[in-house]
Amino acid sequence: MNELVIFASGSGSNFRSIINHIKNGYLNARVLGLITSKPEIGAIDIAREHGIPFYVLSAKQFDSYDAYELAILNQCLELNPRLIICAGYLRKIPPKLIHSFQNRILNIHPSLLPKFGGHGYYGIHVHNSVLESNETYTGCTIHIVSEEYDKGPILAQKQIVVNKYESAEQLAKRVLKVEHQLYPKIIASYLKQLNSPSE
Ligand code: GRF
User: Which of 108, 122, 116 is nearest to 162 (CA)?
Assistant: First the structure.
């Protein structure tokens, strides 16, 4: 009932945190597979470590965008998870997937959306922009994925105070720490809500 498919393109520290929260019993779920847009990334090492199947699906492998979109969709339909969890996935989620898994795809973003979201705001660019804008607060946002980048309904945010003397890398590290706590918690409560919609 609580099966997850993880989408990731990077080091996978959120993926690891989700696995750890499952293992320690905090998150009642099972990871069916990892879908990545790149080979040789940290997230794949984590999947291997835990015996989780992974699938590298990059647009470059296909003759057309349609073929790529269909391959991702078919893979997800075959795995048939309750939720798709984007954890540092750097490609746009194909519209067909969003339609088939309506309100069942979550994403985490390393800023307080709507601030510092949308095209070009990913990775260290987000934190550089936060520092350049002299923001007092930053943090992370968990939202439902819709067709517009970083614009879907917000489920939760956690803020931290920006230290104007820290580097973007230091800030990124502190935001990640908060992400690792918040994402498993929100996945758990969202699954609960999906399973008993009247609550
Ligand atoms: C996180 O900061 C997340 O908010 C963003 O991508 C980063 C992924 O980090 N979407 P990791 O691969 O989970 O370490």
Answer: 116
Residue 199 has pLDDT above 70, yes or no: no
CB of 14 within 6 A of ligand 1: the answer is yes
**Does this model's pTM top 0.90?**
yes
Residue range 42-60, pLDDT digits in tens: 999 999 999 999 999 998 9
The pairing of beta strand 30-36 with beta strand 3-8? parallel
Nearest CA to ligand 1 atom 12: 12
Distance (angstroms) between ligand 1 centre and the Cα of 35 equals 15
Range of the domain at 144: 3-195
* CB count in 10 Å sphere of residue 96: 15
